[in-house]
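sorry to bug you again but im stuck and you know this stuff better than me. theres a chain ive been looking at and ive put its sequence and its fold in token form underneath. id like you to explain what the token line says about the fold, in plain words if possible. anything you notice is useful, everything is just below.
___
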Amino acid sequence: MAATTTTTSTVAESEQSNAKPGLRKPVFTKVDQLKPGTSGHTLVVKVLTSTTVLQKGRSVSQHLRQTRIAECLVGDETGTILFTARNDQVDLMKPSSTVILRNAKIDMFKGSMRLAVDKWGRVEVTEPAEFEVKEDNNLSLVEYELVNVMEE
């Protein structure tokens, strides 16, 4: 009888060790807190404009998928930034819609910041937000320069 109780306790312990860790609550970031070279941001933003900059069709080959890229100006009550939408994301980024960008990262393009969501992140359309977008603080207009510091 004692042998059976020890077996059940080891089964319960092994089930606990295999349990998935709980998902972390997202920490929402504001646009003005974004810095070059950072990632893992979760933001709620409004789409102000969406401009298609690249559209490659299937005319070259049947097995290549279509590539679409759009630059969208998105923002919240602290500022705006350009978001690079790719493929299916382009359809979600309609002007005046509110979206949640999960696991977004900052890419540098010609010395300025661009927000992007790769395959590890998600773009979700949500209900309209209550905030007014601060359009006079566009972080994509700030030009950064990479400076190598030599330590002596």
Notes: Residues 5-19 have pLDDT under 50 and may be disordered.
